[in-house]
């Protein structure tokens, strides 16, 4: 019995779809398996390289010579970075075999470590920033004037001077800042009452008055003790040193 043309076309299309589906499923399954195998190779290589590196570090700390193994581990890490996982795993295995037979370091033939160079705490002169003139003086004067108090009029004018001093300081005009701050200080410094004289607090020592020749001539002559020959006062009746009676 002859089938209609439409039925034959439908059967052909379904057959082609089934074949294509089977082929795609087989391809996807193979591709997925390839990805799984690549991931396993990568993980195995990473574990091998990291484990070998840890073993080499531990042996080195215990005084073993791991120079040959370190070279192989370096090559394995380079191969891992290039995504050559099988080569990295193989090199890590060779490094493990070398670590099993590594010997202790020959401390006699090893060069002695160089002494640590002491770090100087001195700041080089080229890095020292020179302070501008009157920078510190103006800052000190402004801070000291802030705590001073006086009358209402003087304080208002002093605060105006102080504000100008602060503006000059921020503009890096330190001479102007010092001048305005000193004006504010003069306004806030109390003046002594009128008619009252101020005296210096320091004690001035004056030299002893010189004896004139007239005074020397008018003073009575001194006497000498006849026993010990020490000068005595005209008012003394006895020598103050030996006690001999003095004649008038």
Task: Describe the SSE topology.
Elements (H helix, E strand, L loop, with lengths): L4 H57 L5 H15 L3 H16 L34 H12 L5 H19 L3 H15 L24 H6 L4 E2 L6 E2 L16
Antiparallel strand pairs: 1-2
Helix pairs in contact: 1-2, 1-3, 2-3, 4-5, 4-6, 5-6
What does this structure look like?
α2 packs antiparallel against α3 (85-100). Among the domains are: 5-100, no CATH class; 135-188, no CATH class. The chain has a two-stranded antiparallel ribbon with strand order 1-2. It is built from seven helices and two strands. It has helices at residues 5-61, 67-81, 85-100, 135-146, 152-170, 174-188, 213-218; strands at 223-224, 231-232. It has 248 residues and is mainly α.
Question: What class do helices, strands and sheet pairing give?
Answer: mainly alpha
| End-to-end Cα distance | 190 Å
Q: What helical percentage do the residues reach?
A: 55-70%
The shape is elongated
Question: What assembly state would you assign to the polypeptide chains in this entry?
Answer: single chain
Low-pLDDT segments, ≥5 res? 198-204, 212-219
As a whole number of angstroms, the C-alpha radius of gyration is 54 Å
Give the number of helices.
Answer: 7
Biggest β-sheet: count, sense, barrel? 2 strands, antiparallel
Average pLDDT level:
75
Could you give the order of strands across the largest sheet?
1-2
Spell the H/E element sequence: HHHHHHHEE
Number of DSSP strand runs? 2
Amount of beta strand: under 5%
Write a concise keyword list for the protein shown above.
two-stranded antiparallel ribbon; 248 residues; single chain; mainly alpha; 56% helix
């Amino acid at each position: 019995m002859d089938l209609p043309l439409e039925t034959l076309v439908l059967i052909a299309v379904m057959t082609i779809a089934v074949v294509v589906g089977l082929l795609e499923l087989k391809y996807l399954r193979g591709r997925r398996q390839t990805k799984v195998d690549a991931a396993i190779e990568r993980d195995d290589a990473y574990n091998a390289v990291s484990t070998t590196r840890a073993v080499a570090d531990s042996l080195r700390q215990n005084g073993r010579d791991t120079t040959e193994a370190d070279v192989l581990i370096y090559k394995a890490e380079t191969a891992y970075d290039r995504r050559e996982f099988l080569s990295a795993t193989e090199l890590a295995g060779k490094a493990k075999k070398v670590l099993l037979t590594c010997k202790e370091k020959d401390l006699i033939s090893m060069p002695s470590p160089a002494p640590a160079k002491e770090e100087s705490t001195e700041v080089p002169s080229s890095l020292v920033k020179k302070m501008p003139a009157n920078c510190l003086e103006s800052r000190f004067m402004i801070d000291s004037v802030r705590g001073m108090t006086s009358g209402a009029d003087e304080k208002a004018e002093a605060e105006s001077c102080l504000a100008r001093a602060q503006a000059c300081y921020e503009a890096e005009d330190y001479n102007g800042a010092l001048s305005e701050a000193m004006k504010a200080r003069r306004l806030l410094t109390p003046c002594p009452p009128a008619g009252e004289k101020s005296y210096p607090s320091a004690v001035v020592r004056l030299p002893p008055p010189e004896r004139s020749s007239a005074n020397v001539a008018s003073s009575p002559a001194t006497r000498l003790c006849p026993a010990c020959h020490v000068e005595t006062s005209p008012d003394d009746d006895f020598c103050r040193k030996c006690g001999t009676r003095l004649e008038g």
